[in-house]
Amino acid sequence: VIQSVRSREAAALLETGEWAYVDVRLPEEQDRSGVPAMPEFGAGLHTVPSHVPGPMGMAFDAAAWLTAVAEVFPDRQQKMVVGCAAGVRSKAACAALEQAGYTEVTELDDGFAGWAASGLPVAAPERGS
């Protein structure tokens, strides 16, 4: 069973510094609408797009995505809040994480849209050079 939280509960988890935010949206989506602002100290925000454009539209290659996540989070006990735009992709991503043995995952049920609508802080995405 996938654990879900709403934006305000997710923000409280992130404030502890123990939970990382895994944004599964594409960088272009983040550029258009922003990302959840993270506390200065903590596990931070990590962009690992789950559903990418394919020949038949958006596709989720769970194995490839899990490989990318494992590069960022080799510890399968890392606490993660997984978010997308509206709470659809994050559910599929969380299910894949749980099947891969990650034990501390929850998904943002109302997505980034809910985060922004709740008046929670939004930041511009940071892009490495």
UniProtKB/TrEMBL annotation:
Domain Rhodanese, chain residue ranges per copy: 15-124
PROSITE patterns to which the protein is assigned, alphabetical: RHODANESE_3
MF terms (GO), sorted A to Z: catalytic activity
UniProt xrefs under CDD domains: RHOD
PANTHER family registered for this protein in UniProt: PROTEIN HIGH ARSENIC CONTENT 1, MITOCHONDRIAL-RELATED (PTHR44542:SF14), THIOSULFATE SULFURTRANSFERASE 18 (PTHR44542)
Record-given protein name: Rhodanese domain-containing protein
